């Protein structure tokens, strides 16, 4: 299955589980995305964010629960769509309750779907001239369960 919204996108991947992040990177490359990372260290992620072109991001919450949210804040400031992944459902700070959080125990395709939805939703927000809230899911993303995608 190919997702047009991922074609040609530069996607930053950050997760402490390097084999899992590597598998996600392979899945993204199969969609025509360029992978930035994967990183298992937030300092490297911040450096890449400052130095590389980033269109979207996949952030493992369990990397460093307190600091990964500051990284997500930076993505919001820059208008970059993103999703969170987590081994278990993890409470998100209130400012991220509208964001997609996908179990990293599901198939990579489920994570790709969530990322494509996040990219599409951010584009719809821009098209409607509403202030961009990157990573905030649109109504389509909240319409029922999608195999491991948490809808808060």
From TrEMBL:
Concerning InterPro entries, the annotation shows: CheY-like_superfamily (IPR011006)
Highest taxon of the lineage:
Bacteria
What is this protein called in UniProt? Response regulatory domain-containing protein
Q: Which organism is it from?
A: Rhizobium altiplani
């Amino acid at each position: 299955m190919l997702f047009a919204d991922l074609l040609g996108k530069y996607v930053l991947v950050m997760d402490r589980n390097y084999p899992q992040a590597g598998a996600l990177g392979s899945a993204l490359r199969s969609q025509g995305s360029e992978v930035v990372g994967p990183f298992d260290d937030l300092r490297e992620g911040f450096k890449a964010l400052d130095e590389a072109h980033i269109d979207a991001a996949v952030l493992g919450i369990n990397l460093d629960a307190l600091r990964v949210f500051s990284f997500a804040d930076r993505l919001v400031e820059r208008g970059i769509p993103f999703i969170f992944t987590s081994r278990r459902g993890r409470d998100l700070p209130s400012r991220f309750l509208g964001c997609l959080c996908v179990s990293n125990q599901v198939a990579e395709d489920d994570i790709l779907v969530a990322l494509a939805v996040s990219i599409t939703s951010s584009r719809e927000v821009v098209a409607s001239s509403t202030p961009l809230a990157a990573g905030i899911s649109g109504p389509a993303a909240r319409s029922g369960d999608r195999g491991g995608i948490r809808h808060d």
